[in-house]
Specification:
- The chain is α+β, with helices and mostly antiparallel strands and 139 residues long.
- It has helices at 25-35, 40-43, 45-50, 60-73; strands at residues 16-21, 80-89, 99-109, 114-123, 126-137.
- It has one domain: Hotdog Thioesterase (Thiol Ester Dehydrase, Chain A), CATH 3.10.129.
- It has a five-stranded antiparallel beta sheet with strand order 1-3-4-5-2, covered by helices on one side.
Length: 139
């Protein structure tokens, strides 16, 4: 019978997490209200088209919310605390698109219990944004 690994030992460099997700137009409106960001690039189709886009852009920080999901929900336990993020936006995302989040644990420090993840959001295999999520593990 295989032994179950738990706690700090459940984390190992190379560990991967990923999931599919999408943001609806309603999610966009909710984020607009919560954030106070009413920039028409996110809310007005005619404005977005005038800027060369097919539709209003998903808010960058709404995309970055997947980093919070990674640390808060998708790890082996609930002992990791988000300490930092970076995100580079390479290509726009639009409401109601099928997107994919992937993360890999690239740094695990036994001395400090720090975790470092490399992350990417894609649409049909094309990178839309890439970044990092850092956390500290506290039992």
């Amino acid at each position: 019978m295989a032994e179950t690994v738990s706690g700090w030992d459940a984390y190992s460099e190379g560990m991967q997490r990923g999931w599919d997700f999408r943001f609806s137009s309603e999610n966009m409106r909710t984020f607009e209200q919560l954030s106070g960001d009413h920039n028409p690039i996110h809310t007005d189709a005619a404005f977005a088209k005038a800027k060369g886009f097919d539709a209003p852009l998903v808010f960058g920080l709404l995309l970055a919310s997947q980093l919070s999901r990674l640390i808060g929900q998708e790890l082996p336990d609930n002992h990791a605390i988000l300490t930092g993020i970076t995100m580079d936006f390479v290509s726009p995302a639009f409401a109601d698109e099928d997107l994919r989040f992937n993360a890999e644990l690239v740094n695990k420090s036994d001395a400090t219990h720090a975790l470092g993840f490399k992350c990417r959001i894609t649409r049909a295999g094309k990178t839309l944004c890439r970044g990092t999520a850092d956390a500290v593990w506290r039992a």
